[in-house]
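Morning!

This is the sequence you dropped in the shared folder:
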Amino acid sequence: MIYKTLFSILVLSTLLVGTSYSQSLINFEVNTDKLVPGELVELTGQVEAGLEGQPVAVEVKDSEGNVIDGNVLAQDCNNSIIQGQNRLIAVLGLKDMIVVDNPDALLVCAKERSQDVKNLVETLNEKGHPEGKQPAIVNKPWGSYTVLDTGPSYVLKRIEVLPGEALSLQSHQHRSEHWTIVSGSAEVVRNKETFKLKTNDSITIPKSTKHRLGNPGSELLIIIEIQFGNLLDESDISRYEDRYGRC
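The structure's back. Tokens below.
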């Protein structure tokens, strides 16, 4: 027998409309004869932000009507959605609330106000907060990067490059970069030189230097990057070769 179940779930999704993103609480229907918590299903029906047909992990409500995911300690909570990641989220006595912890921001709101999250994002943009335009974890065709820390003249990133993938051959006019290999193996092109690097190796990329980072190995490449300069955003990239057609 196929049961038709209506769920409310918080979908944390990067919505690529320009560079903005937001979180949306949506209702959708799932047809399944045996629902498994965390199972990937496809959204159907009328959903927000063009998410229909995208796979998401469905979490089943507990006996108190809560949807809880991640590193969460919840006591005496009812009908709430609580999602944590690495650090512990401890909540007490919540009712009809949403708590979502991302690396760059913490969202707390009443469930009945979930559709107003987009107004918060607009306010963040108006006030110049980077969290309103770009999430801390940015997915790329070659892998992803996570912004760990920023300052007036530096940015600290964790970069992950998938096996067999490579960034574009590029240069920066306003910043230098220093890379340290955390795990995996790297192939680095710096002008006309090519370097094979392993865990704990480091290399510096001066301003205006053509360079490329690649992962020739079979394991995930993880590096820590420190950028130094007076312009530290994605606009300071000149691409010369790119396997993903971004030149």
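Headline: The chain has two domains: 3-130, 137-241.

More detail when I'm at my desk.
O.
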